[in-house]
Amino acid sequence: MQNKCTQIDPNLFLIDLDQNLEGFRNLISAWVYRDESIAFLVDPGPASSINLLRMTLKNLGVEHLDYILLTHIHIDHAGGTGALLDDFPDARVLCHPKGIMHMVNPADLWQGSLQVLGKIAEAYGMIVPIPEERIFFLPGIGQGKNRIEVVETPGHAPHHLSYFFKHYLFAGEVAGVHQPCDSGLYLRPATPPRFNLETSLSSLKKVIGTEPETLCFGHYGITGEARKVLSLVGEQLLLWTETVRKELADGEESLERRVIERLINEDKLFSPYRTFERDIQRREQYFIKNSINGIKDYLQRSPMKRVEHDKRL
Fewest CB atoms less than 10 Å from the CB: which of 44, 119, 218, 270? Predict the structure, then answer.
């Protein structure tokens, strides 16, 4: 795996955590911020890339972290956190209260990851436990210009958090998945079972309300039009939900193929998918299917419910 790091501004860095899996490049990243008064890292990633992360932090001269911030406890975001703590003995881990004990004793979380992701989870590596005394939850940390606001943003996961700091929003997967591309903005929902549309839209309103300028994706990259993109994400969630609803009316046979074909033509945020290199497309197909299944599950639990787009989003 290649050591890649992008300096966003004098204090903020995006660290690529590419995996030894087909197409798993420009997908997983960690964010590190440091200045003269605070240093923190968002989402260390899976155990498989912790050595890469260590090397990059060393090259950046990062010798101290005050906090490691977890947006959620899924293996690709948090699995290697316990291993990184060995390098930063003063760092404390912030996590949603629903996720804390799963990170202290990750046996069930690991089994769940294996069940859902299979060989991908095996490639990510086992989840490393975090000592109970080093993991906590608060609605915000720090004071003044170093204040980190913690925003509960369920949707992608019930234990999802986003972090607002200065003008940055570290969004995890509240805004879905972003893939840098030459042909325009590519976004797709991250809506695994058990997806809930109303909850996800509510979380988007929360983070728009923080008035961020810069949106830092968990998957992947950055945009300086944070509020505009977050609003577009809400519109996309509604479009995908209605598309799956319409295609379900014709049965479940070839549902994934029919939904993708329709969205490529109707969703301008998703249409750059057809321009991707084949390995990226294959990677995306796996996760698109998961997103479609999450929406299908939601619709089958709430078959009569329709949510109209709120123009204030």
Answer: 119
